[in-house]
Amino acid sequence: MTERYYAGVYWPARLETAEECARRSVTFFRLLSQCDEIYARWYEQGDSVEEALQHEFTPDYATFLRFFHREENQLGGDGFSLGAWTGHAEDGRGGMVNLTCGDASGAYPNCCLLYLPRTDLEPEGPRVVAVPVLVNVLRAMVLAWEPLFGVIATDEFRNALRPKRDPRGFSGWLTYLSRSRGEVPPLPEPARLEPVEEKGVIIILGAERLRASNPEHLSLGRRVQEVLDAKELLRPVLS
Q1: In angstroms, how far apart are the furthest CA atoms of the chain?
Q2: Which end of the chain lies in a sparser environment, N or C, as judged by fewer CB atoms within 10 Å?
Q3: For helices 18-33 and 61-69, what crossing angle results, to 10°?
């Protein structure tokens, strides 16, 4: 079975209002729309495909503010959640965003997850799941949400590098580290660094998609992870 890739960024408890989260959401969806054409249209998630396709939305400030003022999108005393979908009705196509932001309690870890299109089921997959596009996807997430850690990988790759209950980050195909975490030391080839303005760096392990089924890919991921662990750059986001 083909491994499915996702992009995720994570940040610690950070109290933000609905207005602040709405502004960040506008930035994220605007920058994401510039990464590939499949991110040009968005729909609210629903109980069925038919229901969801009736709820296309424009990702502007007024729309996100309306979402975050709805009780169903609020998390206890603070924090907000949002689910969005690109509207591709065929199984496995398009992309889906799950967002949690504004939480200061730590009860609902702040994160933004983007599930990428399947490379084996859809024509868009090989085009989107490629380093030039994914660097821009991760950059969009970083500029909007200012996380401490981000990654693009598969669940299988993550589980091969860390036990499931280990709260530390791991070395993905692409990994983002905030500058506040510390300086990234020299890494094993062919890993390279891509700066994200003054905020941090994206570590790219290679042009080829990293798969857990490939022993060489796992070996590279582990070697890079060992270097980052030695500098405590992958310490838990909540610590």
Answers
A1: 50
A2: N
A3: 130
